[in-house]
């Protein structure tokens, strides 16, 4: 999802503010290459302990490695600079819409339950699901903790991703993720790509088994996505195209205007 999302900014800011309030301060020094990463990790370990991260989370932090591929991806994002037409072509919008219609029918009971619970119709959920991971077919191949730690260390957005790193370590302590969990290049996890701070805030048990699993459970991933949209002002029954009430919630998911427009258009095609 969504390091671009407003909610992620809020979640990261919350974690950062909590860390600062604990008296830990900002001792860890950011860097722009791998050279200082191991030193930073030791400094970050002290901050994480001060924040209340337990031994499981600390051990996971110590096992992280500098992720060169994450830095390369962070510096090379291009698709959000495309025109809407080009963006939809590159991201396979027509395929997402056609497959999404079939999935809507195939999982009609799940989507009906989600709409009753959160007020969000199938279209936007399916459009996000398809746009983010091709309906769970590719959820990334990067170590979640190493990607998040690398971006927390990198000076470009250190404070922002430090909040997500603390959230990720909290999730390790809680058993939601582990040191071997795999996600996307910026530390997004699961079928609709949640950053750690958003998992803490909006993660929802959609299949009712008492556990949160955004990777293997489509119900958990989609319930979490619906919960996110509801938390960002989704109004049951209102429209979600540009200029309508629920477009604001889609904007909360992702700050890139072409992404927002594409989701709204694909969702409308799915919902009919």
Automatic annotation (TrEMBL):
<keyword id="KW-0732">Signal</keyword>
<feature type="domain" description="Transglycosylase SLT">
    <location>
        <begin position="37"/>
        <end position="241"/>
    </location>
</feature>
<dbReference type="InterPro" id="IPR043426">
    <property type="entry name" value="MltB-like"/>
</dbReference>
<dbReference type="GO" id="GO:0009253">
    <property type="term" value="P:peptidoglycan catabolic process"/>
</dbReference>
<feature type="signal peptide">
    <location>
        <begin position="1"/>
        <end position="27"/>
    </location>
</feature>
<protein>
    <submittedName>
        <fullName>Murein transglycosylase</fullName>
    </submittedName>
</protein>
<dbReference type="InterPro" id="IPR031304">
    <property type="entry name" value="SLT_2"/>
</dbReference>
<dbReference type="InterPro" id="IPR023346">
    <property type="entry name" value="Lysozyme-like_dom_sf"/>
</dbReference>
<dbReference type="GO" id="GO:0008933">
    <property type="term" value="F:peptidoglycan lytic transglycosylase activity"/>
</dbReference>
<dbReference type="Pfam" id="PF13406">
    <property type="entry name" value="SLT_2"/>
</dbReference>
